[in-house]
Write a structure and sequence with these properties.
alpha/beta, Rossmann fold, five-stranded parallel beta sheet, five-stranded mixed β-barrel, 14 helices, elongated
């Protein structure tokens, strides 16, 4: 039984009782039959209770809870301290303002308390990082919880796709990712669901992701933690990651194109492994010489296709006859596509002959 349903029933009963009393009173004042008025007003009250009660009780509370879930703990603590200080300052100012003649002595203390409280909250939440850093440096070492709180900006949330991909283990060991790797429990649950799938390929991918997590957990050079933080009112894992990243003010590590775009629209910083892989590939200029193993023919007639060690595709003009050979080619054009980098080349000719190595 949902809270919304219970609220409707309570509201129906309360408003129907109120309608009976109101109808009885109005019927007596009108000199008519109070029973008929009570029945009509009671039914109207019951109907209003069923329809209106959620809009006055559960829905506002759900909206408030949803809004609070998007606010980080650091912001809430800073706002609470700002409110306390604002109320103290407002109380100190209220006494001299109350000595003013009416109506200023009655209105100004109340208005001053509201304005000062609002300004204090705004100042503390806006400068929260500086305030927490100042307090931490003033009192020396922080507790473990405070360290986690102050290091939120350096943490990185891991997406399910990037765990299954597996390259994160090697990247993390290089030290290029600053901060702690966070794996939310809902990501771990999704990974376990994939590992338990009836589809063989999907099950294999899920188990590989679990192996990668175990590898990250056991590696002493990598700081990785599984957190129980969750987002209420959100079902999709990608949506939860985006909301949680906004709460913690941290980045999301992924290779999911759709998650990348949605997160960017909502102002969440993204670390995309595919973009990193493309960025660290070797840069070749037209005219440079490469050694390529031709393994298949291309789409166009006479073309051969090979791959570099980093996976970059090389399309070789008139290279179909060299399939199965390691040959020297000259780069003619480099093309950057959404799928990665492609290199177009032709056979390197020396004294009229192509260099080839079987």
């Amino acid at each position: 039984m949902s809270v919304n349903f219970i609220a409707r029933i309570v509201g129906m009963i309360a408003l129907s009782i109120g309608g009976v009393y109101l109808g009885t009173t109005l019927g007596r004042l009108a000199g008519d039959q109070p029973v008929l008025w009570a029945i009509v007003f009671g039914m109207v009250g019951a109907l209003l209770g069923l329809v209106v009660t959620p809009f006055l009780t559960t829905r506002p509370m759900s909206a408030i809870r949803s809004k609070l879930s998007t606010i980080s703990l650091k912001t809430m603590v800073a706002g609470l301290f700002g409110l306390i200080i604002g109320l103290v300052v407002g109380a100190l100012i209220a006494f001299p303002l109350s000595l003013l003649p009416k109506p200023f002595g009655e209105l100004l203390p109340f208005i001053a308390a509201i304005l000062i409280g609002y300004l204090s909250i705004a100042i503390f939440t806006t400068r929260q990082n500086e305030i927490f850093n100042m307090v931490g440096s003033r009192f020396g070492s922080l507790s473990k919880g405070d360290q986690d709180l102050s290091a939120d900006n350096n943490s990185v949330l891991l997406d399910t796709s990037v765990i299954i991909d597996g390259r994160i283990a090697d990247i993390a060991r290089t030290g290029f990712i600053a901060g702690q790797l966070l794996v939310p429990s809902f990501v771990l649950n999704e990974l376990q669901h994939v590992a338990d799938s009836s589809d063989g390929l999907r099950r294999q991918r899920g188990r590989r992701g679990l192996d990668i997590l175990n590898r990250l957990k056991k590696d002493p050079l990598i700081s990785m933690r599984i957190t129980d933080l969750d987002v209420e009112g959100v079902r999709e894992v990608d949506d939860k990651l985006v909301v949680l990243a906004k709460q913690l003010r941290c980045k999301v590590l992924t290779n999911d194109y759709n998650l990348n775009r949605v997160a960017e629209l909502q102002g969440v910083a993204i670390l995309n492994i595919n973009e990193l892989a493309n960025a660290v590939k070797a840069v070749f200029l037209p005219g440079e010489t490469l050694e390529v193993d031709v393994i298949q023919k291309g789409k166009e007639a006479g073309q051969g296709v090979g791959y570099l060690d980093d996976g970059t595709m090389v399309v070789i003009e008139d290279g179909e006859m060299q399939i199965g050979s390691v040959i020297l080619v000259n780069v003619t054009k480099v093309l950057q596509t959404a799928a990665g980098r492609m290199i177009f080349a032709r056979l390197k000719v020396n004294d009229g002959k192509a260099h080839a190595q079987e």
